[in-house]
Amino acid sequence: MAALNGHNPLSGTNGKMKDDKSLVVCFGEMLIDFVPTVAGVSLADAPAFAKAAGGAPANVAVGISRLGGSSAFVGKVGKDEFGYMLADILKQNKVNSSGMRFDPGARTALAFVTLRADGEREFLFFRNPSADMLLQESELDKDLLEKARILHYGSISLIDEPCRSAHLAAMGIVKKAGGFLSYDPNLRKQLWPSEEAARVGIMSIWDQADMIKVSEDEITFLTRGEDPYDDDVVMKLFHPNLKLLIVTEGSEGCRYYTQTFKGRVDSVKVKPVDTTGAGDAFVGGFLNILVSDLKLLKDEKRLKEALYFANACGAVTVTKRGAIPGLPTKDEVLQILQQVLITEKI
User: Which of 141, 222, 272, 279 could form a disulfide linkage to 99, CB 3.0–4.6 angstroms apart?
Assistant: First the structure.
């Protein structure tokens, strides 16, 4: 496949990329996911749950570090055993946690998540309020944010104050320092006051992003029911300053749209066990390559190679349970790509 021929999508990311110019800072929530110990059941029918670290921005930070890149996490957890556990997981995975804060008055967020037999994901959140919602602008590590070449974030941190103001301030700091803004809305309708509030909140920072990654379902939601496979519909979400819009299609791969070209990249086929964290693995895989050379956004061949590598990151993740536990190392991704190459030759 393209990812293994010609240009190496991991060139410059050999695990020694620890200088400031390669830093990806991920802003937002980190929490505990509780995943059923058996597959294909509803939360109510699950006999037991296994705990796993999660939260989309934190997943991306760990994903980048696992691949040998340089990442940091900025967010807040409770000053409790789960919060300490999450901080330790970041440390174990060599993620810079200097921007992490601990709240003595609020608990670390919890989320129960399952993939039911009918293919629908089911969530149950415990955050009223959880510590991640209480991060204040004054608690931001400004020096760390100014070093970021890329700031990656979602929309959950936009739902409530004071975290929303902290989020907007972090974006401003990075942009002022010349950084690149990466946005994955990561829609969780249950957490917003209403669907309309979710649309308005998600779109409130839309035009500031340099790169946006959305799912098919998110396109349908944001366009109020329009066809996510229609390029004209997708282009309604393309703003003038956007450099890359990625549409993920789960097991089918992804599409990409830039100001000058568009196309699609096939998935890497595997037998899924748990899809939790697959999108975050994809984002981490792509940003880990992008941060070493932002110019690849103008080179379609190299962009497709990077996206194929990102698809492979997602593929490895769905073969394991849990988000952070399932995130791949560089060797695991290259191994699955090599298997695909062998299978294709056969």
Answer: 141
What is the mean predicted confidence (pLDDT) over 200-209?
98
Residues with Cβ within 8 Å of residue 346, at least 6 apart in sequence: none
Whose CA is closest to 30, among 59, 65, 70? 59
CA-wise closest residue to 159 among 118, 206, 192:
192
Position 288, amino acid? N
User: Could you give the angle at the alpha carbon of 18 between the alpha carbons of 16 and 20, nearest 5°?
Assistant: 145
DSSP class of 297: G
DSSP 8-state secondary structure symbol assigned to residue 327: P
84, 74, 77: which is closest to 23 by C-alpha? 74
The Cα–Cα gap between 151 and 12 comes to 19
Averaged pLDDT of the chain = 91
pLDDT per residue as tens digits for the range 21-74: 699 999 999 999 898 888 889 999 999 998 989 899 999 999 999 999 999 999
Give the separation between CA 331 and CA 324, rounded to whole angstroms. Answer: 17
- Alpha-carbon distance of 231 to 336, in angstroms, equals 31
Residue 151 — pLDDT band, cuts 50, 70, 90? Answer: very high
SS3 320: coil
Sheet arrangement for strand 49-54: 49-54, 31-36, 110-115, 121-126
Which string of b and e fits 171-181 if b means at least 16 CB within 10 Å? bebbeeeebbb
The torsion defined by the Cα of 294, 295, 299 and 301, in degrees rounded to 10, comes to -50
Residue 152: strand, helix, or coil: strand
Name the token pair of 159.
């739902």
Return the structure tokens found at 273: 């066990």
